[in-house]
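Entry 14. Ran structure prediction on the chain below.
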Amino acid sequence: MQHPVPDRSSPSVRPGPPPATPADSGSLRMLEIIDAGASQTDPQARPPEAEAERKPRRSLSIFQKLLLLILALVLGLVSILAFYLLSRQVAEMHDGLESKAAAYGRLVSKQVESAIAFDDRETAREVFDSVAQDADVESLTLFTAKGSVLRAFGTISADSSELAKNVTAQTLIARADRIVVAAPVVSLEGPRGTLVVELSTRRLVESATAAQRRAGLAFVLAALLGAAGALSIARPLARRLEAIAGSANAVARGDLNVKPVDDQRTDEIGVMVTAFNSMLRQIRGLVQHIKKAAREEQVRLERLVAERTAELDNRNADMRRVLDNVGQGFLTLDRECQMSRERSRVLETWFGKAPESGSFIDYLAQLDAHVAEWFQLGWDAVVEDMLPLEVTLDQLPKRLALGGRHFELEYRPILNAEGKLERTLLVLSDVTAVLERERAEADEREVTRLFTRIVADRAGCLEFFAEAQALVDEIRAASSEPERVKRPLHTLKGNTAIYGIDSVARLCHRLETSLAESGTVSEAEIAELVVRWGELTRKVKALVGDSSGKLEIDEADYQHVLAVIDGHAPHTEIQGLIRAWRLESTETRLRRIAEQAEGLAIRLEKGPIQVEIESNQLRLKPEQWSEFWAAAIHVIRNSVDHGLETPEERARSGKAARATLWLRTSLNERQFSIEFADDGRGIDWARVAEKAKARGLAAATHSDLVEALFADGLSTREAVTEHSGRGVGLSAIRAACRKLGGKVEVESQPNKGSLFRFIWPAAVVTASGTRLGRSVPAPASKGSRS
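Output, structure tokens:
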């Protein structure tokens, strides 16, 4: 079912009146108006709280507002005229004084040219005396080219004396108390001098002060006149409006017997008074009509309510029968996560009796406190209304595991008229059987994939299971030491994912995530991994039976031995070849790795790839080298995931669409090596250096970067995926290499690829393996093509 359930206490409880139809709503509204009018007419019927709520906020009267408005207009206009004109007058006086100073500078400097030429103090005196008649002239000073004073009138300021030095063009400076002009004096005969004229601003300041006094007086007079005019205009208007407001307030309180307003004027207020009196008469008539209609409507509504109540009782009974017999859990939650009383009976079968609080959170807490806390966090986000409703509802738990059952949850919002969340319909479905069936189907798919691999490579699968069992045992033994768990866990995840055992790979990924987030893993999580692996192991043993004491021989090896016997080779050589059958061919290991790389490339959408294998007919002791081969998959996964490009990216880089991997084992007199190479994008050494510095590792040289590349926890990926990003895989392969006494070399060029070379002394292989057939020189490494 998809409809919300009405929130009723029980089918037997009488609900309130049904929603009114459009025809009913008008009548109901009439009754409300009459009741409101009655309560307002009788002051005794209104409680003090209601009277306090209705009391209007105190504000200015119409008279005060009109008075303030007229005063503000008058004063504003007078202020603008008085003070603006005053400022313009003062500015013009100041500009005039500066113009006069500049004119004096030009004229006087011309008249004293002969005085400078002949060092004539008398001529300078005559010119200064004529200019000094101006009351604004504060000082006149004529300097010679050497800086001495030839003639002076008044006392020149120290700043002006400094200004006279190095004057090349007429300069004007306005100060607070004076205006200074410095002008160069150049005579025709060659001597030079400087004229400094200082004009006092004293008279300008006095004139401005007098003008300000006049403006202030005009402002005061205008304010008095404006106040008188405003009073004469505002008072009559305010009295008329107050009369209308008093009558309107009385009507608003329900007093319809108020006297009409007496105002016979024909202006706008008079027209409003006439309209108000007419409206009052119409309201009185309408109220009498409504009272009569309301009495008739009351009788009809009582009859209608009785009919609707009986109808709702029948519908509630039908709904109760439906909820008691459905296989899904239906209930509605309000914003406080309180459950509706009407809900599916099957909920009590699943979760037991509901708590007295009626809270769905408390209902969940009865079964699992952790699940209840998780749901509470999601519900808080829903009701906070900070994010879109669709987003927060989608973040609520979709599945719950409670009381040994698995439930699927679906949420349907119920919105109010404003579009806000009012309630939420919650639909719970028991999907325990569905999940068990899906798990059984997944198990069958995994077993089918394993059976296919066993048929194709029985020995390889058995070795894989033996190696994986050793990793599971190591994880179980090191469960109390999280750091020891990381490498075997990452290796087990990679190897099981390659073999298509997704259930184990997912468990490993979940354990890795728990390690990364909390630094520990619980015994229950490791136990789940051990149990799951044990189930798979039992199924595989049932498929392959007991293979102990059996030796599988490749057809090519068998034919090779026959050819050697037919060639009458020495018994020691034949004996060595037959003994080598108990050793593992590196060709087999490399081909398995090649198949895993090809499958991984398809899953990562890197397209089909080409893998070239060169084993040089080498064989190794499987029990000694199994740990290295198990960890070697990390190099291949990194090469495919990090190094190889998609066909489109390779086309843009001018490469062949199909990427290539090279897998090679070789042996000479000095060393044994295993190489993995690709022609991908190469290692981003700058990124490695950045990550190494962030972790406090050395990154100055290439060897430092190689060392950092194999450090625990270092990965160039920003996000962890199921294939890479933990920074554990390469450290695991290096640890396995060093355990056998070897070392690692890394070569990489941008856009050309990478080469990982693992090297051991030849004695390691001579003691643990051999070459099938006669020794031949090892060809050049194909890894150099990267």
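The CA atoms of residues 538 and 736 lie 29 Å apart. Will compare against last week's run tomorrow.
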